[in-house]
Structures are given as C-alpha cells and as structure tokens.
Amino acid sequence: MLLFLSISNDTFFVYYLLSNLIYLFLLITAIFKNTMHRHRLGSLKLELLKASPFTPPITLLVPAHNEESSIVASVKALLSLDYPALEVIVVNDGSRDRTLQKLEQAFQLQTARVLYIPDIVTAPLRGIYRSLTEPQLLVLDKEAAGCKADAINAGINAATSPYICVVDADSILEKESLMRIMAAVFSDPSRVVAVGGIVRILNNCTVTNGELKEVRLPRKPIEVLQVIEYLRAFLVGREAWAGFNMLPIISGAFGIFQRDLVKQVGGFRTHAVGEDLDLVVRLHRHLQEEGRPYHINFIPDPTCWTEAPSDLASLARQRARWHKGLIDALWPARDMLFRPRYGRVGWVVLPYMWIFELLAPIVEIFGYSTMFCAFLLGGLSEHFFLQFLLFGYAFATLISIGSVLLEEMTFRRYSDWREVTRLIFYCFFEHFPYRQLTMLWRLQGIWQYLRGDMRWHEVKRVGMSANPTV
Amino acid sequence: MGFISSAIEALGPAGLVLKAILLSLLGILLLVGFIISRRWYRGRYFRRRNRRTVALRAQWEDIVSGKVPPGDWRFNPLDCDIVESILLDSIEMGTPETLPSLLQCLRKSGLLDMRVCETRVARGWQRRTALIALGRTRAFEAIPALAEALDAHSRETRIAAVRGLGRIALAEAAMPLMDRMLIHLDVPEHTLKSALVKCCRSHPEILVNYVERADGPVRQLLARVLGELASPDLGEELLVLAADPLPEVRGSAARALGRTNASFTLPALDSLADDPEWFVRLRAVVALGQVENIGKIRTLLRALCDSNRYVRQRAAWALARMEPQLGQILEDVVATKDEYALQVFISELERSGAIEKIISAMELGPGRSAQTLLDVVADARNRMGTNSKAAAVAAGGR
Description:
The structure holds 2 protein chains of 2 kinds. Chain A contains 14 helices and 12 strands. Chain A is of the alpha/beta class. In chain A, the strands form 2 sheets. A 10-stranded mixed beta sheet of chain A has the order 3-4-5-2-1-6-11-8-12-7, sandwiched between helices. A two-stranded antiparallel ribbon of chain A has the order 9-10. In chain A, helix 10 packs antiparallel against helix 11 (343-358), helix 12 packs across helix 14 and helix 13 packs across helix 14 (417-451). Chain B is 80% helix and 0% strand. Chain B has 24 helices and no strands.
C-alpha cells in the first residue's frame, strides 16, 4: 500500500512539475512573441487599413438565445465598429423571451424575401428580416436546435463576406478590434485561415449604450480570480501555442474564420458542447490532411469583453460545461494523437490537452487524495509533504504573477495602482483554493459527460442594460 | 550561512524541494519588484515627457522656423524624440502650405539625415522604426534609403521598407518597389497593394508600363492596383488589359473600366460580362452598376440569367437601382422566362424597398398587361416565401 502511495505521489509530483514547467516555457515564449507583435504594431497604421480598398468585408455572426436584456445594446455597438465593409447577422435561436421583438422595435425590422441557401444543414428558419434603419443588419429567426453551433451555421449560410467573425450576443468588441484582428490576416492572407482575439472580463466595467467606457477590475474575488485565469490562458497559453502554429482553440466569443473553409469542414458541429474548440481541431485535421500550408493565429490586442459568472454556482456550471466541451472535442480527434500526418498538432498540443487539461482534474484530485492518505499512514514525511505542496503552489503562483507582468508590459488595461496590487494579491489564491475548486467542477463535467448529460446549463448573467456598470 | 546550507543538506530530498520553494519565492519577489519599479519608472518618464512637451510646444513656431537653434533640442534625446514625433504628426496632417516649412525643419536640424543613417547602420527593430519614421517624413531624399532596405535579409525589415515607401506617397517611391517586384520581393500582398495605391494615386499611368512587363502573380497584383486607381485617360491601355490572357487581369480591367465612363466603356464591359471566368463576369457586372448609361440594361438583363448566382445577384442589385426604368426592367425580366432571374430581381427589389412602389404603379396602370405582370410578381413572391421555408424545413429535417 505504502509503495503504491509512494509511486503515486512521485508521479503526481512529476506531473505537477511538468505542467508548471510547460507553462513557464509558454510564458517565456509569449513574452517574446508579444514583444515582436508590439514592434510590428508600431509600423502598422490602422487608419490606412481602414481606408484601403483591399480590405475584405467581414460578416459578424451573433447567435442570440434569450438575450433580451443585452441584444439591442450589443447589436448597436457591433454596427458602430470601425471597419469599412461590415455585415452583421443576428441569429435569433428560438429565444423564448422578447429578443426578436426588441430587435424589431429597435431596428425597424421588416420581412425580407431573400434567397437563403442552406449549404450547412440547420434547424428550420422561421423568417429573415432586414432593418430599415441599418442596411448592413440582417436578422435570421430560427427554431431552437438546443445548441449555439446550429445558430452560427445558419448565419454562415446567410453570410456574404469571405471572412466570418463569431461574436457572443452578450459580449462587447472594442471599436478597433476588427481592424486589429484582420491585420493578422493581411500579413499573409493565403496562409492565415483563422485568428482569435483576446477575451477579457467585463464585470464592473462601465458600459454605456453597448460601448465600453471605463475598464475596472471586478469587485468580487471570484471575478478577479477569473481575470487572472483569463490573462494566463489568453496572454500566455494561446499566444504561445499560436506562435508554434498549434493553437487548439479560438474562443467562441471572438474569432474570425475563412467562411469557405468553415463550410468545407461542414460548419460548426451541431450539438458539440465546445463548438469553438471542436471547429479549430477539425480545421487542423482538414488542413493537415490536405497538406495545405496554413496558420491559425492568435492576436492579443483585439479585445472582446464578456460578462463572467459572478457566483459560485454559475461558475461551477460554466466550468463543468467547458470540460464537457473539451472531452467532446478531443474524443473524436483521438485518432490524430501521435500520427506523423498531423505533425506537431498530433504530437504536441493534442497530447498536452489530453494529459494536462482533460485528465488534470482526475490526476490532481487523485494525487491530493493519495498524498493525504500517505500522510495519514505515515508513509510521507510531514516536512516533505508540506514542502511539496508549498513548492507546487509557489511555482504556479510565479506563473500567474508572470501573466500579470505580461499584461503590465503590454496592454495595461488595469492602469490603477490599486487594481494591479489587487491582481497580484489574488494571484496567491489562484492555486489555492480556486484551482482545487475548478478541478472539482471539471470533474463534475467529466461525470456529466460520462452520464450523457450534454445539456447547456444556464449561467446567470446580469446583462448590459440591467446594470449600467456591468 | 554555513549553518543554513548544512541544515538544508540535512533535510535530504526535502532540502531540494525547500530550495525550489525558495527559488520560486525569489522569482515571485523579483516579478513583483519588477512590476512595481517599472510602473514607477514609466510614471516618472511620462511626467517628465509631459513637462518637456509643454515647454517645447510653447516655442514650437520658433523651433520650426529655426529661431530656436536645432542645437538647443537636437542633442537631448527626450527633446529630440518629442520634436520629431510632433513634426512627423504635423507632416502627416499637413497641408501643401505648411509642408515645406516642416520639411525644412527636418532637414536643417539633421533629423532626416539621422534617420537615413539609422536605416543603413542600425539593425533589427531600430532599423524598422527608422524606416517607418523616414517614410512618414514624405521627403523625396528618403526614397533611396528606403529602397535599399527592400533588399534586406529580414522579411520584417522589407515590410517596414514597403510601408515606409507607401507613407511617402509619391510616384517616385513606387518605382523602386515595382522594380523589385519584377525581380522578386517577398512581402505580404496586402502591404504591397496598399503602398502602391498610396504612391500611384496621382499617376496611375506608371502602373501600365509595369503591368505590361510583369507576368504571373505580380502582373495580377499590379493590375489589381490599377483597377483601383484607373482614370478615364487610361482608356486604350485598359482595353488591352481587358483582353489579357490572365483572368485576374481582365477582372481588374473590368473594375477599372467602371471608373472611366467613356464611350468605349460599355462595349468593353459588355464583352467582359460574357467572359468564361465567373469572377471576371462578376466584376464586369459590378462595374456596370457604377456606369451612368441606360444602355447597360441589356447587358445586365443577360447577366441576370447567368449560370453563377453571385453574378445574378450583382446584376439584380445594379438593375434594382435604376429607379425610373424599373417598371420596364421588370417587364423585361418577366419576358426572359427565367425563374432564377425573376426571383433574384424581386428579392433585390424587396431589399431595396422599391417593390411596393412598382406594385402601386402597376395597380394604377391600365390594361391586362399590368394585371398579368402583377400576377406574375405575386406568384414569384409567394413561391420565394414557400421555397425559402421549404429549403429551411428540408434542411431542418436532416
């Protein structure tokens, strides 16, 4: 028994160490890549891109399901984005509230008999509407299929631009975000097939008429911890993976894709829980199989602000759902693992996702349990046990503070001294007890997946119009 | 110290972990310290910069005219940086009247020479920054230094040189760019096109010569730029390009012809609207939409029956915007007996909001022909509604 516990503890130690070392490597890569990106931005003038006749049009796809509290403000903000050729398609995905009515009132919608060709199969459309006041706005009203992917696919069918950008209805894009994200496409249009932008947390920021006026750090500790988590995931993880062309996910809240390529892979997979991750993995598969040179990129400055769960129950539901999405996307891609045909995606990033993301809750909870058992049975020196926990904690905290540093060196969205101090202070709680809580929620996600519970559990949101300082 | 290290040694494997903890804690302290000191330093720097900006702005006229000798600010790095950035911003926003004095200040102070020197001597990001700054000066003498950087080994440097030449926005800056393109220039297409558009805007004719000399993708790219800038006086050259073997060049010629509005425009676009490549036909139809001539209706009606749906849509778009002739056009569309053409045209009339007006006009109109037309339109509208629903229902049925 003690031998088993000892082997288990050693394995856990190596696992934890390896996980943190990889993240340290990603942090260093991200700092380097970020510096390069900022230098590049220095020579790029966004106004020139805006005035260029070669800037390709974009269709913004906004799936909306029961979004009556924020839909009008969101659409108004999207329509006012700085981009020369913009089409906005809102897909009302069988909302049971007054989402469509609110849109009808605000934008004077009228039925449009336009030809709609369903290249990608979706749930039936109930109607297509055009706005009398906003010519670039198109609203699709469709029956609910129980998933966001279906709504996005309907939008893709109606999109007329070569690039589509998927945005959540409850999110806010910064004015220049589309120009900035498209700059990555202009750098190499033949290779860059998809680009992701950064998602930041909107809670406690001041929003007026769907436009972000003032950035502030959220008040609640649970929200601040999510800010740190997002900084680490986006500024470090995605930035670094994209640097090696191994980006496994583009956030469903904000990302652009080549429309025809998405159509080629059959659109977003309906009923996928994590449709964003699933699509990117399938794009990697498709492009690698075709042997086509490509780059799926991440750019850290185009920003999308979104409301994060502000209570533990909602956060738990969100994290369980994310983990279900992870399994749901990785399981069908299991044949890509360690296959030379899929290059570094199959050899590096997918194994990483399996070992250090998908299995993390099982390994960690099991690891903590065996350590505790060994401690109780006297098979582990008390000093060593505490020191190991301290080391794991200190090393991981170092990386969290590293991501705050990266934010400080680059975009400095939280400019106030007190806010930065709070951010650093909360870094000490991200790995205890927040991490352990998220592991439990993720474990719950695995359990739900194994039970076949693929429901989209609602996450409570305040909404932009309900609270002026969302 | 000896006591501490022997105590750690005595801990065995736990000692190693203790060392790791101490190292991590040290890392945390260093990071926090770095964040704090960086914030403090930046705050101090910007306060100082602000003060100096106010001081220099107060004597700005004298600095530009040279009454304040350049030696007073030129050798203080902060002052030099502030003056240069104000000068470059002013040049970018400047009018033809203010530009000479600003350029004179750049030249007399030696700032221009400093940047030229940097583009030749410096390496990496410093060189790229200098290239962009040099481009922003819009000075003629900056062109050779920028052109040299087009041969740089680093792609980033070449991109910066292209952007710099684009910022100069003079036809002379486009020459070295196109000369290199004829040999080989590995720079993103969008960057090249944007730079060329800016440089050739006032003299698009210089592109024609290069289009003729180039082949393959470079020819396509140059033709695309020409398509954006073409003016009516380029007539004959555009007709030659309209007969080019490369479809992309023909497409660009179609785009360019849309801007000329000359006597040869309509026949040339009519011929391009029958091109075997769908995107050439599409561009020809888009160009026809810009031409002010009712003679285009015949071509657009033909395009409305095209085998490609994008061509049909654009033809419908162009036709639906010819308000005084809409009644007659609708009759002609019905006469084509092409279901697709009728649907796409009515769909476009719905979108533009003109359908109700036409129907009202027809309802007031006399005779059976108006009634027949009304019936056809009503029937088409009904079927469109049913078809869309049927397509969606079929799609939903999976």
